[in-house]
Design a protein that fits this description.
The chain is mainly β and 76 residues long. The protein contains 2 helices and 6 strands, in the order αβββαβββ. It has a single domain, classed as PRC-barrel domain (SH3 type barrels). The protein is 13% helix and 45% strand. A 6-stranded mixed sheet has the order 4-3-2-1-6-5, with no helix packed on it. The chain starts with a helix and ends with a strand.
């Protein structure tokens, strides 16, 4: 899957069915090449630009399923 396909998917928290936004960036482990964290930004790009704390960081282990349209995460 390409990053351009990944970032077009909405991220939904399965605990409260809340839309968290869309993927804006990844954090990789340089040695293994595995994704460690996924950064989610609010839908409004201006908010993320001027308010960097609007980004939500999700550990990759909390991703439960990646579907054709959405990504399901389990955040407490």
């Amino acid at each position: 899957m390409l990053f351009s396909e990944f970032r077009n998917k909405e991220v939904i928290n399965i605990r409260d069915c809340r839309c968290l936004g869309r993927v804006t960036d990844f954090e990789f482990d340089e040695c293994s090449g595995c994704i460690c964290k996924v950064m989610i930004g609010e839908s409004n790009k201006l908010v993320c630009l001027f308010k960097p704390d609007a980004l939500v960081t999700i550990p990759y282990k909390d991703i439960r399923q990646i579907g054709p349209d959405i990504i399901l995460v389990d955040l407490k």
